[in-house]
Amino acid sequence: MRLFGRKDEHLFRLFQETARYVVRGGEILRSVVYDYTGLDAKLAELSCLEHEADRIIQELIVKLNTSFMLPFDREDAFQLVQKLGSTLDFISGIVDRMILYKAAPPNDTVREMVNLLCQALVEQEKAFAMLDDISKHKEDILKCCSNITTFERCEDSMYRNAMAYLFEHERDPVQVIKYKEVYEHVETAMDYCHDVGELITNICIKYS
């Protein structure tokens, strides 16, 4: 079953394009945590990416409000848009905080959490690329969503352990605040990605 009628094929392409921008945002974030130089330039690149994604999201919202050929809940579509945008917002927020707080170079935990996030974002993009034909790609879509859940659970465990270690071993309260903010933003970005995976899973179940 195709999710979008012929008149809404452009709408689906916009979803795909938005997911691609989110993946690109993750790639910029990963370049930051592995090469902690040129942060202002990387933040500028990420800001431009975010502005372009916002433009596409606004176009998506307009089309969702005017389309008559959505064979799935309009609320699901709006939630997908909102959570994709929020994911990119939090990715940008991570880099922003690293610059504002003048934090120390990211530690191994931050790198591992960002790696898990980037892997989840790639799975999210794969799912969107197949979502226009659920009957053909249902199992592959659900596998992508399952992989996102696996990455989210791994990161959640890593986040909890990192926070516990931070409060137990870090004696500088300023450093506690800096790392806490970074950990929380990576975790929240992953949570939004996981929410998208759950929405896509529900769409597959309802419309296959």
UniProtKB/TrEMBL annotation:
Family annotation (Pfam families): PhoU_div
Alphabetical list of SUPFAM superfamilies matching this protein: PhoU-like
InterPro entries, alphabetized: PhoU-like_sf (IPR038078), Put_Phosphate_transp_reg (IPR018445), UPF0111_domain (IPR052912)
Family, similarity comment: Belongs to the UPF0111 family.
PANTHER family given in the database record: UPF0111 PROTEIN YKAA
Protein name per UniProt: Putitive phosphate transport regulator
